[in-house]
Amino acid sequence: MKLSDRTKLIKPAVTLAIAAKAQKLSAQGVDLINFSAGEPDFDTPERIKQAAIGALKKGMTKYTEVRGIEPLREAIAEKYRREFGLNYDKDEVLVSCGAKHALYNVFQALLDNADEVIIPSPYWVSYSDMVLLAGGVPKIVATREENGFRITSDQLKDALTPRTRAFVLNSPCNPTGAAYSKGDLEALASILEGHNCLIISDDIYEKIVYDGFRFENLVTANPSLRDRTVIFNGVSKTYAMTGWRIGYALGPAPAISAAAKIQSQSTSNPTSIAQAAALEAIRGSQDEVETMVAQFRRRRDVIVKRLNSIPGLTCFNPQGAFYVFPNIRPLLGKKANGKKLESACDLADYLLEEARVAGVPGEDFGSKENIRFTYAASLEDVERGCERIKKAIEKIG
Ligand SMILES: Cc1ncc(COP(=O)(O)O)c(C=O)c1O
Atom of ligand 1 at shortest distance to CA of 99? Predict the structure, then answer.
C-alpha cells in the first residue's frame, strides 16, 4: 500500500517499542527487570481515582469543551499563579490527551515548512519527529556531559539563525535528568532576548527534583519571554497518571487558540472523566508527590552509586526526573557473547539477553554512547538490576 511521504519521515517511538518487548518477555514468565519504561511505578493516588469514579457516577460522560473543562483550566492557571506568580487566563490554557499531544498540536499550529527548531541533545524521542511532521527542521545541538548535559549560552547563540522559529528546553530532562538552575536559564534568556523565536518549555518533570533543587523555567527566570513561550506540563509523571492521558499547554492566546483549532479537528476534548481526575490531582493535597519523590531520590542514589562502580560505565548524577543515562563508551568495540558491541543498541540487546534487564539505547535520544535506565522500580529491583548489569558487563572482553 502506498503510504504518505509524511509517515516515512518518522519512526515509531522506540521507548514504547522496547517497553512492549519487555512486557511481552515478562508475560512469558521471564524474570525481567524493566528499566525501560517512562513512567512511575506507583499507582495513581486513591483520591484521584475516587474523583474519576465520582465524575462517572454523576454522568460526566459527554463531550466537554475542546480545550478542556473550565474548572481544570482555571486550576492550572491558578497553580502557575500560586507557585510561580505567573498570570495566565483560562483562555491561555489548552488541555490535551497528554503533554505529548499538547506539544504535537502546538508544533502543528506554529511551524511552517523549513522552520528550524533548536533541540538540545540528548533529547526526548518525540520532539524531532513532531517537528518533522509539522514540516519543520530539527536543529540538534549536542550538549556535553562535562557541562552537565546542559546547552550553554554560546552553543545557543551559535545555533540561532534567521530561520530559527523555536527553541525547545526540557528541564529536568528525559533522558539525562539534567536540570537548569535559575542562573543557567538567565544566561540562556539573555541570548533569547536578542532573537524573536518561540520558546517551547517542557516542564513535565517539574516536581521530580532532588537535593533541594529549585525548579525554574525560562519564563520564571525572565518574565519578558512570557509572550513567546509555551509551557507544557501534565499529570502523567507527577501523579503517576500516565494512562489517563491528560497534559496541557499554557501560552499566549493566539498560539493556544490555533492549537485548540487543530485539536478540534482531531481528538476533540481529552477524556471527560480523566479531566475530573486531573482536576483533583492539581487542586488536592500534594502529599503523595513528596512521598513519591523521596522514594525516587533513594533509588537514584543507589543506581548512580552502583552503576559508577561498574568498570566501563560512568553515570552522571541527575538533579531530576527518574532516569539515569550512563556513558558506555569504553565498552564499545569490545566483544559480548562473541559479538562486537558497535553501538548502545548492541549493548541494550546484550543486557536484555544476558542480564534480563531492559534499558533504552541512547541512539534515539541523540547519543550513541549512552543507555537510559529508568529507576521507577522498587529499590529491590534497582539493586537486583544493577547486580545483573554488573555481572553481564564483567563478561565483556
Ligand atoms: C520530556 C517529556 N515530555 C513529554 C512527555 C509526554 O508525557 P504525557 O504525554 O504522558 O503527558 C514525556 C513522556 O515520556 C516526556 O518524557
Answer: 11
| Collapsed DSSP state (helix, strand, coil) of residue 374 | strand
Mutational test site, ligand 1, from 121, 231, 236, max ligand atoms within 8 Å of CB: 236
Domain boundary (251, 283, 315) is at: 283
Residues 132, 241: one domain? yes
Per-residue pLDDT reduced to its tens digit, 120-146? 999 998 999 999 999 999 999 999 999
Say yes or no: 117 and 23 in one domain: no
Tell me the pTM.
0.96
236 lines ligand 1 (CB under 6 A): yes
- Number of structural domains (the chain) is 2
Question: Closest ligand 1 atom, CA of 102?
Answer: 9
Bridge partners, 116 (sequence order): 137, 164
Q: How far apart are CA 317 and CA 319, in angstroms?
A: 7
Q: Which H or E element spans position 358?
A: strand 357-358
Task: Output the furthest CA–CA distance in the chain (Å, rounded).
Answer: 63
Tens-digit pLDDT profile for residues 353-370: 899 999 999 998 999 999
Q: Is the CB of 320 under 6 A from ligand 1?
A: no
Regarding the beta carbon of 321 and ligand 1, being less than 6 Å apart is answered: no
> Distance, CA 100 to ligand 1 centroid (Å)?
6
In angstroms, how far is the first alpha carbon of the chain from the final one? 46
Residue-range definition of the domain harbouring residue 365? 5-43+288-394
**Are 276 and 356 in a shared domain?**
no
Do the beta carbons of residue 99 and residue 80 sit within 8 Å?
A: no
**Is residue 52 a part of any domain in this protein?**
no
Distance CA 231, CA 248 (A): 8
Q: What 8-state DSSP symbol labels residue 140?
A: E
Alpha-carbon distance of 344 to 171, in angstroms, equals 24
